[in-house]
Amino acid sequence: MATHTPALPFWRPDQFARRRRFLEVRQRVMRAMRGYFESQDFAEVETPALQISPGNEVHLHAFATQFEDLFTKERRDYYLHTSPEFAMKKLLVAGMPKIFQLAHAFRNGERSSRHHPEFSMLEWYRANARLDAIKQDCINLVRAAATASGIKTFSTQGMTCDPFAEWESLSVPEAFRRYADIDLMATVDDTPLLRRQMIASGLRVTEQDAWDDLFFRVMGERIEPLLGRDRPTFLCDYPASMAALARRKRDDPRLAERFELYICGYELANAFDELTDAAEQERRFNADMDLKEKIHGIRYPIDADFLAALQHGMPESSGIALGFDRLVMLCAGTEEIEDVLWVPVSR
After folding, report:
1. Rounded Cα–Cα distance for residues 49 and 130 (Å)
2. Is the pTM of this model over 0.85?
3. Which domains does the chain have, with CATH numbers?
4. What integer is the mean pLDDT of 33-61?
């Protein structure tokens, strides 16, 4: 009978020597990143990982913990954040105009070649700016990272991508037409129609699939693996139901002001033209938590202090979260996230 041989510990000198060159790339990319933000007069901020709410995404799972006051013995539930978003937006309300943070973020149940339970997220916000400014930040940052790493093209999974070429902007509805021959907007309120179009396109469906399930299946099987080939791709204009923290497009409220960045089939970043309406944000949070409870049997608290900050008045802002470790992977030429982490979480 075959037996499982556990991986050797990272701290063995022979194992660490193999990863050393990847970690040197990480340092160069980090210096280039901070240099860019300094050139743009951003303030680097630090926010606590412990939060009342870890975030209210339907399909993200958090690590829970508890604070015990040593004097009163009072206990209070906390979570490790899945993103520093809520805390950083409170700083926008406080008056900070341009902020960035390289934060440790935590997501339970995620471990693969591209996922880790604790990872580094680069998040930044511009007050009084739209998504075009965030797109230009992405172009400048990715090019700076490539230059610092001494590479001209990214190459992984049999794909190459030139960050110095002209970048592509592609809407989600156009991507569904191009890669799956599906008229997405015709199906927004019609799950049976989306199911029929997917069957005609040769995709697997079941009667139990909700609209969201079908949407993600098309994305995962037909669209995402092909994005960012030859040149980076901004995938823009998501259905409004796919962007709980973004404002709706003014010219088509069925869509949201959101984009994701793809390079060589990697989802690298997620950006919003931020929702600032506290009442609408609370409505969306509650709807998402109802869905989370229905699907996963759990719901997370809503950060009342965050809603109070929005009510007080957050400026029109745009922001983005970028997977820093994934960017380093592309720059270092490795397909394993643990290669670019100084100390991976123990198995």
Report:
1. 27
2. yes
3. 13-167+231-340 (3.30.930.10)
4. 96
